[in-house]
Design goal:
Blueprint lengths: L11 H15 L2 H8 L3 E4 L2 E5 L7 H16 L5 E4 L6 H9 L3 E3 L5 H5 L6 E4 L6 H9 L3 E4 L3 H15 L3 E5 L5 H10 L8 E4 L2 H13 L3 H7 L10 H4 L3 E5 L5 H18 L7 E3 L5 H14 L5 E5 L5 H11 L4 E4 L5 E3 L2 E6 L4 E6 L8 E7 L5 H14 L9
Helix pairs in contact: 1-3, 7-8, 9-12, 13-14
């Protein structure tokens, strides 16, 4: 196999095979029916309301399609996936069942050395660090890049910042694969660019304070340990800044962060915003799911269930939105709903799965809202709906 040859995985014969596999693993006729019927299901005294937008987005669907296509086209070759294809344990387990091997998102030197020209390496939907991709190419392995187009749009912006000696202030989680991949592009092709990652408003206020008043550079760098580019100096690299973001963050928070930073730069520069730039790089699908949840929460709901991987950023933000309005339970799958008196769910405050009791009334009218992150397939949503109705003693819709 020639690693340099461009391989078209989207031929009709491959994609017809892929479509059959994907539908068998992830499709739900029930969820499709509910979506087409306005997202409402009534069974006895239980009403289920689905958010208007939920579950797999285009970028996730494309990544999964390409991974399945790689499995067919490169049958007989070793296929490796850098980390997780998406942040959903059930989907990643399915990749393993297909024979795709999991590499760490940051492979070790020994793992890189184990690769050869006959091997295939899949880059996940949220991308991979530039150095990692370069190391895979150096081994001559074939790369199947499933990086989402929205993520690559952010990379274009931060590379532009680096070319123009503008520091990228990245709103994101410093340990998240997408943010690490974006930060690596913010260094620019020659490695001379700079970045600073801020998690939230609190950290942004620290940056704004330094922009306006200066301070001890060492203390500043200690507060942002692990979140700055090599050689970052706040005295130099906070003069010209541009805001970018991990595409799955809350739009409202990103907008608040860019407003604070623009105000700080404008005040420091006596009314001139020339040293500040901002591009809207929030993923459209992420925003659609957040907007749909706000709409759902405006209705009469007794509780909300959010389904998705616990390490999924976009799903986490749906939970944050829900918690402000209704009792909210963040579950991986239907198995978390153990009984009407016990549910296992992820606690954002403690970052652990916990158990709650008395979560589900077993009598009387009940309306439950359900949404799911962009990495959650429809089959898991259907299983959750059926389990919910079972625990309520209601007759679920007939299986397709």
């Amino acid at each position: 196999m020639s690693a340099t040859a461009r391989v078209n995985l989207r031929t009709p014969d491959i994609m017809s095979h892929v479509q059959e596999q994907v539908e068998r693993h992830y499709r739900s006729e029930l969820v499709e029916r509910l979506r087409a019927g306005g997202g409402k299901l009534v069974a006895g005294k239980t009403t289920v309301r689905l958010a208007k937008e939920f579950g797999f987005c285009y970028g996730v669907e494309r990544a999964i399609d390409l991974a399945y296509a790689a499995g067919k086209y490169f049958a007989g070759h070793r296929i490796f996936l850098l980390g997780e294809i998406i942040h959903n344990p059930d989907v990643n387990a399915q990749m393993s069942e297909m024979g795709i091997r999991h590499f760490p998102a940051r492979p070790s030197a020994a793992e890189f050395e184990s690769l050869g020209p006959d091997d295939v390496v899949i880059v996940p939907a949220f991308g991979a660090e530039a150095a990692t991709v370069a190391a895979v190419k150096a081994r001559g392995s074939q790369i199947v890049d499933t990086t989402c187009g929205d993520v690559m749009s952010v990379w274009k912006r931060v590379r532009q910042n680096a070319d123009e000696q503008v520091t990228s202030i990245i709103h994101g989680k410093a340990s998240h694969e997408e943010t690490r991949a974006t930060a690596s592009r913010a260094l620019g092709p020659d490695g001379n660019g700079h970045y600073l990652i801020v998690l939230d408003i609190e950290q942004t206020r620290l940056v704004c304070d330094y922009i306006l008043h200066g301070g001890d550079a060492g203390v500043f760098l200690e507060k942002f340990s692990g979140a700055t580019s090599p050689g970052f100096d706040p005295r130099i690299h906070l003069v010209r800044i541009g805001v970018a973001n991990q595409t799955t963050m809350l739009r409202s928070e990103t907008e608040a962060i860019q407003t604070l930073l623009k105000q700080a730069v404008t005040e420091r520069d006596v009314g001139r915003p020339d040293n500040f730039r901002y591009f809207d790089t929030i993923c459209g699908a992420t925003q659609d799911r957040q907007d749909a949840l706000f709409q759902l929460l405006s209705e009469t709901l007794d509780l909300l269930i959010v389904i998705g991987g616990y390490n999924s950023s976009n799903t986490t933000h749906l939970v944050e939105i829900g918690q402000q309005a209704r009792p909210t339970y963040f579950i991986r799958n239907a198995g978390c709903m153990e009984s009407p008196t016990s549910i296992r769910h992820y606690d954002l405050a403690t970052r652990t799965e916990t158990a709650s009791s008395g979560w589900l009334p077993t009598s009387g009218p009940l309306t439950v809202g359900i949404t799911a992150g962009a990495s959650c397939p429809n089959n898991l949503i259907e299983e959750a709906i059926r389990r919910l109705l079972e625990l309520r003693g209601e007759q679920p819709p007939p299986a397709s």
